[in-house]
């Protein structure tokens, strides 16, 4: 028997997008930015963002589409879905020509960590003092 699970906490890069399958099942996709920071061997602070494309299904998809907005913090519990062509993350090209990648996750559970949203779509209060991911311009979001 094989098993895999991933848990991520980050911020939505843009508002969710919902659609329906031909059979009528709701499916919602959204991007989550997760910041990673560390100190390199030479003492330099390094910060980078890892992108995850999350897909939620059914009632959870409808709830995510209704309540989630760009900038909100979420915790996603799910499983990784590899690119069928490469077996790895989705590779894409940014507008400046540099490469980026995103990891595909099928959500089992999505927890909303931002308590509410202000009029501009940003979180008013975060969840548990966790650091907010820095969101790039919309053109640099992979999906």
How many angstroms does the end-to-end distance come to?
Answer: 33 Å
The SSE order reads EEEEHEEE
Please give the CATH class.
Mainly Beta
Give the overall form: globular
Strand content: over 45%
Number of domains: 1
Q: What is the CATH topology classification name?
A: OB fold (Dihydrolipoamide Acetyltransferase, E2P)
Q: In angstroms, what is the radius of gyration? A: 16 Å
Structure annotation, total helices: 1
CATH homology group: Nucleic acid-binding proteins
* Sheet/helix structural class: mainly beta
CATH architecture: Beta Barrel
Range of helix content: under 10%
What attributes does this structure have?
OB fold (Dihydrolipoamide Acetyltransferase, E2P); mainly beta; five-stranded mixed β-barrel; 143 residues
Report on the structure:
This protein has 143 residues and is mainly beta. The chain is built from one helix and seven strands, in the order ββββαβββ. The chain has a five-stranded mixed β-barrel with strand order 1-3-4-7-5. The chain has a single domain, classed as Nucleic acid-binding proteins (OB fold (Dihydrolipoamide Acetyltransferase, E2P), Beta Barrel). Helix content is 7%, strand content 45%.
């Amino acid at each position: 028997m094989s098993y895999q699970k991933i848990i991520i906490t980050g911020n939505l890069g843009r508002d969710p997008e919902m659609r329906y399958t031909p059979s009528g099942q709701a499916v919602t996709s959204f991007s989550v930015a997760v910041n990673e920071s560390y100190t390199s061997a030479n003492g330099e602070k390094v910060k980078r963002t890892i992108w995850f494309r999350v897909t939620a299904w059914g009632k959870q998809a409808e709830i995510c589409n209704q309540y989630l907005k760009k900038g909100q913090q979420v915790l996603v519990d799910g499983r990784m879905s590899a690119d069928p062509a490469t077996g790895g993350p989705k590779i894409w090209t940014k507008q400046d020509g540099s490469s980026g990648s995103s990891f595909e996750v099928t959500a089992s559970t999505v927890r909303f960590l931002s308590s509410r949203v202000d009029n501009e779509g940003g979180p008013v209060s975060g969840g548990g003092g966790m650091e907010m991911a820095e969101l790039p311009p919309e053109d640099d979001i992979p999906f």
